[in-house]
Design goal:
The protein is α+β, with helices and mostly antiparallel strands and about 450 residues long. It has two domains: about 1-195 and about 365-455, Zn peptidases (Aminopeptidase); about 200-250 and about 300-365, Alpha-Beta Plaits, CATH 3.30.70.360. It has 14 helices and 18 strands. The chain has a six-stranded mixed sheet, covered by helices on one side. The protein has a four-stranded antiparallel sheet with strand order 11-13-9-14. The longest helix has 18 residues, at about 35-55. The two termini are about 20 Å apart. InterPro entries: Cyt/Met_Dipeptidase (IPR051458), Peptidase_M20 (IPR002933), Peptidase_M20_dimer (IPR011650). One of its GO terms (biological process) is proteolysis. Keywords: Hydrolase, Metal-binding, Protease.
Length: about 450
């Protein structure tokens, strides 16, 4: 099956490039109301790709927002069922002046296709569709049962998917979910992401007097909200970056010895890391490696702080209000709602009676983790090694993809995050791109992976 399927991919490569190019011309910007018709057109083309690949019961399912596209092939009795998740919506293309060509005018340069959505996530979903198509066209069957769930709202926090799945979750029952929306470690080294940090976000407002005051007439007698807010923020961590908020670490799940062993294999260069972010020294918990700090430890970070007069020149006021935006990155077993309440309570408890604290609780998402000893993960690693000629790295990611954890909770599925973007793919940025030789090689790895999944009881 493998050789014939790969031969099919090679023989039809030019057609597949044309199909991907057409998909990328559709400006499926989910956050832009003016793109509503294009979202429908993109869903229709996505359904067409699934149908032409050989998927059955392909449907465009309405939600309260943009539609979902689904399809399935369930003729492998006794074999596992794989749910393939992806999204056809894309980020806005701004700033347009930084694009080499129009963001929805795909072009190929140095074996790389450049367009919005090339790597996030149309190009990576396309790989799975073509892997399935190659197997069905050459052998008439698949080694596993397959279901597709391709949404149109990932870039706007999957606003309507959870509600839809609460009502229709049974149709997506499976043994494992596969998501390709992440990256390789480098051009030659594949990776499997087994953990993502969660997120909680808030805006804190500290209010003192009912208006800005003259700093000469009132300074020293009336509390300064900017000073108080800064003092509370400064108290959150000690000099080594350890968070002092009582109970903040109580639910933190420590990494296992096996995970620590896998992380130690990652070729980390501290000097290169510092140069990449433009700092002379790193900072944080001294008893943790840098990768542990950014992948498996929680944080509290100030994203912005302001108050009083910030214009040109001088204006001697004692500000009435000061504000800060605070984000918390969370690790497995921490709950974003509980952490948000905990941090909000801390601000309130540290504030003197001369000011009032108001907290506006904003975005949130749970952390995600899959055991590195999951049998599907071990088999996927074998497929990647056979295709790329080197062991994949098992990594975690300090960022967040909230819908992955939500899908886990709603569907009860472990998830494999296996991406084929390269570090320079510029997702969410101008000149987003996808390296085509890596895409073709990754498609071969997907074929191998599904074939190996069939042997898992």
């Amino acid at each position: 099956m493998f050789e014939e399927a790969c031969r099919y991919l090679t023989q039809h490569r030019s057609v597949h490039i044309e199909e991907l190019t057409h998909w990328l011309t559709i400006p499926s910007v989910s956050s832009d109301p003016q793109c509503a018709d294009e979202m429908v057109r993109c869903a229709e083309y996505t359904a067409r790709l699934l149908t032409e690949a050989g998927m059955e019961q392909v449907e465009i399912l309405p939600t309260r927002g943009h539609p979902l596209v689904t399809g399935q092939w369930l003729h492998a009795p006794g074999a596992p069922t794989v749910l393939i998740y992806g999204h056809y919506d894309v980020q806005p293309a701004d700033p347009l002046e930084l694009w080499e060509t129009g963001p929805f005018e795909p072009h190929i340069k140095d074996d790389t296709i450049v367009a919005r959505g090339a790597t996030d996530d149309k190009g990576q979903v396309f790989m799975h569709i073509k892997a399935i198509q190659a197997m069905l066209k050459t052998s008439g069957s698949l080694p596993v049962n397959v279901k597709f769930l391709i949404e149109g709202e990932e870039e706007i926090a999957s606003e309507n998917l959870p509600t839809f799945l609460k009502e229709h979750g049974k149709r997506f029952e499976a043994d494992i979910m596969v998501v390709s929306d992440t990256a390789m470690w480098d051009r030659d080294t594949p990776s499997i992401t087994f953990g993502l940090r969660g997120l909680a976000y808030m805006e804190v407002e500290c209010t003192g007097p009912d208006r800005d005051l003259h700093s000469g007439g009132f300074g020293g007698a009336v509390a300064n909200p900017a000073e108080i807010l800064a003092r509370i923020i400064a108290s959150i961590k000690n000099e080594n970056g350890h968070i002092r908020i009582p109970g903040y670490y109580d639910q933190v799940r420590e990494i296992t010895d096996r995970e620590r062993e896998l992380l130690a294999r990652i070729p980390y260069d501290e000097e290169k890391y510092k140069a990449g972010v433009g700092v002379k020294a790193l900072w944080g918990e001294h008893d943790r490696t840098v990768l542990e700090r950014v992948w498996s430890r929680p944080t509290v970070e100030v994203n912005g702080i302001w108050g009083g007069y910030t214009g040109p020149g001088a204006k001697t006021v004692l500000p009435a209000k000061a504000f800060a935006k605070i984000s918390m990155r969370l690790v497995p077993d921490q709950d974003p709602v509980a952490i948000t309440d905990m941090v909000a309570d801390y601000f309130a408890s540290q504030a003197p009676s001369s000011v009032t604290i108001k907290v506006n609780k904003l975005a949130g998402g749970k952390p995600f983790h899959t055991s590195v000893e999951n049998p599907f993960m071990e088999v996927a690693a074998d497929a990647l090694k056979e295709t790329f000629g080197r062991e994949p790295l098992f990594i975690r990611n300090g960022g967040s993809i909230p819908i992955v954890a939500e899908l886990r909770d709603l569907l009860g599925l472990d998830t494999l995050l296996i991406g084929f973007a390269l570090p320079g793919s510029r997702a969410h940025s101008p000149n987003e791109n996808f390296h085509l030789p890596t895409a073709w090689k990754g498609t071969e790895a997907i074929i191998r992976m599904y074939a190996k999944f069939a042997a898992i009881p």
